[in-house]
Design brief:
By secondary structure, this protein is of the alpha+beta class. The protein has one domain (3-129): Nuclear Transport Factor 2, Chain: A (Roll). 29% of the residues lie in helices and 52% in strands.
Length: 130
């Protein structure tokens, strides 16, 4: 694996978290290949539309911080597989923080020089820990 590929893929994973937390849903969609999948949603338009109906979009007082780590990458030319652990800190207004944990399993493809998600799946491992 080229170190540039490693850095660019990790940047895509991190940008997803930052853009989502900042409610920049159209920019999240741009991290996906045109026919990319996130969960059951397929294609950028469906992904962005779904995010626009989700908790972050509907609830102004909701604060989330997605952190990913323990990233394992396997790159084969212009495709890659990534697995990472997710810590999601969540709070509504001044309520106590809650913690969720999960695992992202991703496939990415280099398209026009950019590493984009072709499939992003999240499996929750714990919800609502305080």
């Amino acid at each position: 694996m080229d170190n540039r590929d490693d850095a660019q893929i990790r940047n895509t994973l991190a940008r997803f978290c930052r853009l989502l937390d900042d409610r920049r849903f159209p920019e999240v969609g741009e991290l996906f290949a045109p026919r990319g999948r996130m969960g059951r949603r397929a294609g950028r338009d469906q992904i962005v539309e779904s995010l626009g109906r989700g908790g972050l979009a509907r609830t102004p007082g909701l604060f989330r911080k997605h952190l990913t780590g323990n990233i394992v990458l396997e790159v084969d030319h212009d495709t890659a597989a990534a697995e990472s652990d997710l810590l999601l800190f969540e709070r509504l207004g001044e309520s106590p923080w809650e913690l969720r944990t999960g695992v992202y399993r991703d496939t990415l493809e280099r398209i026009d020089g950019r590493w984009l998600f072709t499939d992003r799946q999240l499996t929750w491992t714990a919800n609502g820990l305080r």
